[in-house]
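Aim 2 progress update. The chain analyzed this quarter is reproduced below.
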Amino acid sequence: MRRARRPAATALALALALQLGAAVPAVAADITATAGYENGNSPLNLTQIARYTSGQFNVDGGVMEIVAYNRANSFAYAINGQNGLLAAISLENLAAGSSVARLSGTDIDVKALVEAADSSFRYGDMTSVAVSPDSATLAAALQAEGYNDAGRVALFTCNSDGTLTLKGLVETGVQPDMVTFADNDTVLTADEGEPREGYGAGIADPKGSVTVVDVAALTSEVVGFDAFDTRRDELAASGVVLKKGAAPSADLEPEYIAVSGGKAYITLQENNAIAVLDLASRTFDGIYSAGFEDYGVTPIDIDKKDDAYAPKTYGSLMGIRMPDAIAAVQAEGKTYLVTANEGDAREWGDEDLGTFYLDEDERDFGDEGVTSPTGAITAENSGLTGKVVFFKSGDFDGLDTGKDYLFGGRTFTLYEAGADGLTEVFTSGDDFEALTAQYLPDYYNCSNDNTVVDDRSGKKGPEAESVTVGTVDGRTYAFVALERTGGVMVYDVTEPASAQYVNYINTRDFASIVEGSEEYEDGELDKWVTGGDVAPEGLLFLSDAVSPTGEALLLAACEVSGTVAVYQVGGEPLSVLPFTDVEARDAQAVRYVCENGLMAGVSADRFDPNGTLTRGEAVAALWALEGRPVVNYLMDFSDVDPAASYGEAVRWAASQGIAGGYGGGPFSPDDPITREQLAVMLYRYAQHNGYDTTQGGMAIREFGDFTQISGYAVEAMTWAVEAGVLTGNSSDTLAPGQAATRVQTAQALFALSQMAE
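Predicted structure tokens:
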């Protein structure tokens, strides 16, 4: 087994999430292109190029969850678990290398369509969505209202305008949690069968299963695990985790499916196992343990009280991988499986009814005499001072009684799938914690519902939630989403046993709080939603042959922020800026103006983003954008030296009506240019070049000080705000009379340049 190897970080990290600095509604947040931390230092670059925002968010998650894509109509379909609708999001107008775009979507009421077709089905929830390889059919997994009732797969014809036409409903097992196409004619569902009313006499624990659906015939076969009830001891001996006294047919809970070579590979998350289903015979070849992380060898940070990355090894401690998502990849003529090892607790039932069950064993090492469940870890021998959540291993078979166990592995793992089962060939070890601590030291192991450093160290750390694979330029990559800290880790898995870390992108805005998301406990802010893309739940890779841009894309559905992030995968690397005072959110605009000679740094390593720009410098930048034309025009400003660096620029701007003096008098080239003066120059420049300057919309009225705009600048400011050339100075102010900063000017010039493309 090989463990991960990682390069040193780049000198300048270009991937911090956009930093707005003020709390703003999610629907109003600016979108700024964000690059991967290793761009320019890795064989694979990552850049955010678009975002869909549902306008909804939830501190507890469950908004944007799973996303699918139809190559024929260029629509992505994302499940909104909060309103129960399916968002149809058009990607048709994306262009490779373009500025970051806001994507629009149309909600489809799947529940209404289903209930109109079959009133006998008591609709509960939509959990997953998939599109057939030929893009003709969309499948949605539907759970019934009753937790012990059979679910449904809804099959739709995909229309060119993004709408769906219901073809039929097919019965599944209980609680279908994931749906995928094995081919154009076959749909599979992972039927989880959770005991949602807890455990106890007379309380049902539904059986887990995999449903195989014939798309054309609208028929199905539910394949259960009854054959393994007589093999319970064998499973437990191999490391499959089973609740004591429970039959495998009821206790095994399918979570996710990957298909390759006529086999379906199904994660059984709570059981720490992977099942292999032969699709031809519709029988299981076997059930295999996903293995464990050994924290006697691999360092881990489980102390949430020290507010820093402090990894240690513990001889008695193991991580139960409990894989969530799984992907299959062909390499070296073999099938390999990639798992995201999230971990998951069983928390079911009702305390008032006496049926509640939770398999967590929380120990606070700040209390006197507290130890780990085995007694091997104490505050004295470990230095631990906070809470650690252990797995209640005494309630389960398949574990070593001499070991302490944690939920999840904080890793992803690669297995070779062979005739005799699964062979582990690689695990990422401590990479996810070490890398996020390196890139995000202030937010290391924070949660998806806060930004408190170390908050998740005593639980499941960054939580590897989802995984997908894709090929770019002949190399195969695994993309692993981290639900808690956020972002996507990328590894080269072309040679699975020698997998290599290559990049990480995180487009969460850690510095902002979405208004209305705050939750308090004992008067203290306890939970909140940040801006950007929070808690990636589902990933989808689009190859360059499928992508609407002609470049490979990665889609990430984010369940807390209610967004779908679109990342360009590959393409030309972004150059590393020499300036130490430019934040990553501003890097694209600053890079553009510097590389194109519109502006320059104030020194070799400083851009001075918050400094001001003079009227002469602003005109010179627009003149450079125009190509520095020479005009035969009389210089009629007595305070402008024709030999000055901006002299020819002022002559050109005056000749084209782009800039004039104060009241027909002096030009005042050394005065700081105000935001409304800049808007007027940009507006006139846009008109000069034939750009669309229609103003339709009332975006400007969202700002409390819009009435302070000078009369001459109202038209220009209205256009600039509506077109996104200028943004607010804060969440609710335009500050029209305030001096424009150098970085604001750079952003405006970059936005203006995009109109010409």
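The longest strand covers residues 164-174. The chain has a mean pLDDT of 90. These observations will guide the mutagenesis experiments scheduled for the next reporting period.
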